Structure formats: structure tokens, C-alpha cells
Amino acid sequence: VKITSIKSHVLRYELEDELGYSQQYYKHRTAHLVEIETDEGITGWGECFGPGNIALANKFIVEKVIQPLIKGENPTNKEYIWHKVYNSLRDSGQKGMPIQALSGIDIALWDILSKKANLPLYQLLGGKCNNQIPVYGYGMMLQKKPVEQLIELFQKEAKEIKEKNFKAMKMKIGIGPKDDLKLVKAVREAIGDDYKLMVDANHAYNLSDALYVGKGLDEMNIYWFEEPVAPEDYEGYKELKKKLNTNIAGGEAEFTKYGWNQLIKNRCVDIAQPEVCGLGGITEYLKVSALAQSNFIPIINHVWGSALSIAVNLHLLTSMPDMPGGLFPSKPML
């Protein structure tokens, strides 16, 4: 079996309302799917993380940079293909868009193998460890409104998420330390003290502001504080992890086993959040997962994409063993 073509499909639709997070607002959602065809008629599908115009850049990398390197290769030789591409691009792209592009291709290669073997993906990843995957609700995106209006919107949405029986929920912050704590306090009051609540700053803060916000979160029983500082700031992560009681979560902007090795060996996070569509695909995710497990760091995957991304993550979590194990283990959420 040989790869005959690789195509990118950038999907885009307009949102009813302009939404955002601490780094930008946007009016459209984008998804970037990768389609790999073979001479046996088997087609594999993958997805690349990277919103907006980033998807257009990744499309070019997939079709014009990576495709010439691997066209004609046996798609089941996933490890060989991964390293052939990475080694070819290493001088120009150890992180970022080249790895996001490679991620979508790698996921599509696993899809081809799964179809060729006539087995669900989770069987190829080690088999079924979980029959059910708990799901958390995600909403409360930032909007260009005064904090008083955001409070009203966030409280309404939080109540709706809770009523739908999600096991937990996550909200955005990043409009400023004091206003952020007002938002979190309002949501906590709306859903009660016992409901699991997470906050995501999308690396909005310097260390000083992150500590201020984190100490406020400690008083509100927040389950995790996601991406409090820039992904490059390993020392900042370490400091926050030492000084705060709230779990520090991160990793969606980390790439490959090499980057994750630094994040983990520096003891930066309490909860690892690998993004399979960005860090290098399933081949690399398995290595990152092994790194986290060998350091007893729980994994809760970062997921932000289409139904394809959700499906891939369902298979990953279905095959994920309990860690460290027991009769009543804490299960990773989707």
C-alpha cells in the first residue's frame, strides 16, 4: 500500500456572536482536515490544530512541504514517516505550524491502519480500558462587553451547562486580574460550591498577576488554573505550582516529546493537557502520555476542533489506563 495524494480541507463558518479568549476575538470557527488517499482505495482522515488563518498556512505546509516528502511511502510505516518529516523540517520547525501540519497527517495514517486492520483505533492503541468517558461542559467565552454584562452572561450559561448534567465546566478569563476574579466568583455562586469548575487564562498573565489570580482561585475551590503564564515560561509554571493549591494545568501549546520532556521534568504542571492535533499526532501523543504517566502526572487532553478531533480523543481516552490505579480511580474527562 502506498500514499497517492494528500489533500487539505479548511472548513469555516460564521458564529452568531463574536467570541474570544484572552488573546483575540473571532467571528468565525475554522477546522483543518487532512485527507490521505492510497493506491488500495483506503482513505485516512486527520485534523490539524490551528485556528483562523493559521489553518491556511498549515494547508500549504501539508500539501506543498510535507506531501512531496512522503508521497509513495507505505502509510503504515508511521514512525518512519513521522521522523522523516520531522528530521527534514527540524531546522525550521521544531514547534508550531510544521508540527501542527504533521499532526493531521499522522492521525490520518493511523486512520488508514485502523481501516486496513478492520479494527477501531482504540484497539490499535492497546485496547479498551474505559467503557464510558466523563464529559465537561465548555463555554463562557469572552465578549467585548463590560464585566457587569459578562457576569450576567456567564452566570446564565453556567446554569445551563450544569442543567445538562456535564460532570464539570470550564470558563475563560484573561480580562484583568480583578475582573477575572469577579467573573469566577459570579460563576461559582451560580453553580454552587461543590460543582467542579475550571478556569482558562490562555497565558494572559505575567507571574505576579498569575499569583494574584491564583490565590483568589484557591479561595473558590477551583479544580484547575489553565495556562496561567506563557508556555515558554517554565520557571513561572514551577513557581505557581509551588505556591498555589489550585491545580496548574497546561500543555496545549507544547510540541513533541522534546518540548513535553522539558515541561514534565521541570515539574511545571499538576495536570497535563496534550493536544493530539497539534503536538505531533497520535504517534507522538503516545510518547508524551508515557512521559506523563512515568511521572504520575494525570492527563486530561486538550480538545478544540471538529467532530474528527473529538472522535480521535474518545479513542485515546478509551484506551487510557487508570493511573496510578485502584478501585475508585479518577477518570480523565473529555
TrEMBL record:
Co-factor requirement: Mg(2+)
Keywords annotated in UniProt: Magnesium, Metal-binding
Pfam families (alphabetical): MR_MLE_C, MR_MLE_N
SMART domains linked: MR_MLE
GO molecular-function terms, A-Z: hydro-lyase activity; magnesium ion binding
Gene3D superfamilies: Enolase-like C-terminal domain, Enolase-like, N-terminal domain
GO BP field: carbohydrate catabolic process
Record-annotated Mandelate racemase/muconate lactonizing enzyme C-terminal domain positions: 151-247
Protein name: Mandelate racemase/muconate lactonizing enzyme C-terminal domain-containing protein
Organism: marine metagenome
High-level lineage: unclassified sequences, metagenomes, ecological metagenomes
